[in-house]
Amino acid sequence: MLPKKSSALLIAFLCSTLGLNLNAATLRDPTKPGYSSGKSASVKTTTNKSLVLNSIVKKDNSAYAVINNQIFTLGESVKGVKIVHIGIDSVSLADGRKLTMFQAITDFKGHN
Question: Secretion signal: which residues (predicted)?
Fold first, then answer.
């Protein structure tokens, strides 16, 4: 009887270790980079001419516009486009675009 018990234990042991090995093969190493579809994993940078008007400062006859976190004055170019007008809450560009401040900043709801 001893050989039958030991062979049954051996079979049970082998089945359990094979099961663990198969399960371990399907687990992903959490320290490895994520799966990719063959494309580059780098962060895409915007190469288009998207511009964000961050703020405007006007005092007397001078006006400054902060666009993409850089300070510009009237007549200067931002990404190759000349600034033709700096208003209280907007900037007009020579290519016809008009950059405006965020709605929440310029619109005071409930105030008359």
Answer: 1-24
Is residue 97 within 8 Å of residue 81, measured between CB atoms?
yes
Evaluate whether residue 65 is within a structural domain. yes
Q: Is 53 helix (H, G, I), strand (E, B) or coil?
A: strand
For residue 57, give its domain range.
53-106
Task: Give a yes or no: residue 37 inside a domain.
Answer: no
Output the DSSP codes for 55-111: EEEEETTEEEEEETTEEEETT-EETTEEEEEE-SSEEEETTS-EEE--HHHH--TT-
Q: Does any domain span residue 10?
A: no
pTM as predicted: 0.49
- Locate 27 and state its tokens: 């687990």
Confidence of residue 42 (pLDDT cuts 50, 70, 90): very low
